[in-house]
Amino acid sequence: MSDQIKFIVDNLNKEPFRKNYNLITFDSLEPMQLLQVLNDVLAEIDPKQVVDIREEMPEQTAKRMLSLLGILKYKPPGNATDMSTFRQGLVIGSKPVIYPVLHWLLQRTNELKKRAYLARFLIKLEVPSEFLQDETVADTNKQYEELMEAFKTLHKECEQLKTSGFSTAEIRRDISAMEEEKDQLIKRVERLKKRVETVQNHQRMLKIARQLRVEKEREEFLVQQKQEQKNQLFHAVQRLQRIQNQLKSMRHAAADAKPESLMKRLEEEIKFNSYMVTEKFPKELESKKKELHFLQKVVSEPAMGHSDLLELESKINEINTEINQLIEKKMMRNEPIEGKLSLYRQQASIISRKKEAKAEELQEAKEKLANLEREVSVKTNQTREFDGTEVLKGDDFKRYVSKLRSKSTVFKKKHQIIAEFKAEFGLLQRTEELLKQRHENIQHQLQTIEDKKGISGYSYTQEELERVSALKTEVDEMKGRTLDDMSEMVKKLNSLVSEKKSALAPVIKELRQLRQKCQELTQECDEKKSQYDSCAAGLESNRSKLEQEVRGLREECLQEESRYHYTNCMIKNLEIQLRRATDEMKAYVSSDQQEKRKAIREQYTKNIAEQETLGKKLREKQKAVRESHGPNMKQAKMWRDFEQLMECKKQCFLKQQSQTSIGQRNLLGTNVSCFEETFI
């Protein structure tokens, strides 16, 4: 936690916040000031959040912050029960709630800025399906989706350009290369113009070629328009199927959605919740308290050895034997009233156990259902982000699978046909190559003949004219065909739209009635929900008060227990000291010499006497050492001098050994002996 606070303070002191906090001032901030700091960080991420929270209601502040944190995909720690505490902590400015949020936001500020910017344009507005039946609403919704897709593509391109790292030098190089290519193309076009000017009727041929190009472009546009209309038709059919499925589900829900059934469901939920609040949760709380008290008791007791454990086991065995004897006595009495009561008690205990087990199973099932719904919503959101289409369910998915199977069989057949065509294409390609070679040879021969006759290029111009005329006839035929197909398709679409409108008219009427019923039921449900929320809030406040009282009592209990153990230890120490003092008094007062010797006083006096005698001996020894210290030091000095003199004689003797005679050696020995006698 200290590292977390340190990280938050360091980042808040940097740009762009510059708060000038330290650990103490930041930790001593009030809840409103802490919320203002959190709001400043959120405003740095999203500029729309620049608000003074003193001028705003706490509910609006919490709602605004929660919506932005949801957009930024912040996941608070814990499960669904902790979400309520997270919301309450965000409203009141609780430190354990706000510190992790600040730490998470300051860790990834740049990433979250980008996410908040994209969320402004990419969070899709959900339009009800009944409003989409209006053409203007459907068109505007379609334009909105197209603009969103265009924004996605443009943003991706922008990010790619930012990360691609193009330099100005490369762009200039590309521009120069493109200009060179442009010049080459202009030269080539001029060359072709000069070559074409020699051909007869070249203006007419150019006009025909221009018309051909225009018609081809128009043909491509018409094919594209036809494909778009097919896609629109496919989407319209899909939308119709979706609306029909929604209508079926609403009819099915309306068949069961009677006030009595809804009231029964609400009563069952209220009974279950009241059982959980009044019976199950208090029992669990009591059991947890007992466990906690037992564990505290175990912790407060000193560590047990093997002998203590054996004693406890023997006590447990004795108590178990006593319990068995009491049960046997009770069975021997065999009173009929108690026997009946015991049966009822057993039945009641069995029923209560079953009830608790079923309640736990129901709670687990609800948690699993909530988790699965959460996972489904996450998966649907992911698929919408990836594809932009809705996930198929139930019958739609089965139909989709059957379509896929039929398409796979068709694909296999078509694949086989394509393989046959490929084999045929290989043969035809080979024959085409052979024919091209022959054609080239013939053309070469024809060109030589034309050159000889003086009419070069005649066959080429004639072929071009024939080809252009054939292309014009084909284009005219294609135009007629496409116009006929388009008129037929428009007629079919108009008839289909009119049929669907006539078929959907009674359905829309029924939908209006069902919508009114649904509004009434939602109003009732909102009223019941508000009653439930108020009741739950009251219970929550009572529970928090009780928890605070329990916490205070636990702290008092711990303090009293620590005092109790401290006083016990002090009493034991005093008892030991008192026991030693009484033993000492007994030994000192008694007439027995053996006991007196055991007394601590006698032992201390004996030790004192021994130490005094030892001190006397050491002082005498010290006195003798002091008296003999001077002469001993003189004698040691004389011996050192004598040692130096002998060393000097030895060196002189070694030098004169080769020159001196035996007599001189004897003389030296007599001199040494005389010196020793005088020294001694």
Task: Describe this protein's structure.
With 680 residues, the chain is mainly α. Among the domains are: 1-123, Orthogonal Bundle (Actin-binding Protein, T-fimbrin, domain 1); 486-589; 590-622. It has 19 helices and no strands. The longest helix has 132 residues, at 458-589. The radius of gyration is 54 Å and the shape is flat. 3% of the residues are buried. Mean pLDDT is 78; it is low at 671-680. One of its GO terms (cellular component) is intraciliary transport particle B. Residues 3-126 form the IFT81 calponin homology domain. GO terms for molecular function: tubulin binding. It is found in: Cytoplasm, Cytoskeleton, Cilium basal body.
Keywords:
single chain, 680 residues, mainly alpha, Actin-binding Protein, T-fimbrin, domain 1, 19 helices, disordered C terminus, cilium biogenesis/degradation, cilium, phosphoprotein, IFT81_CH
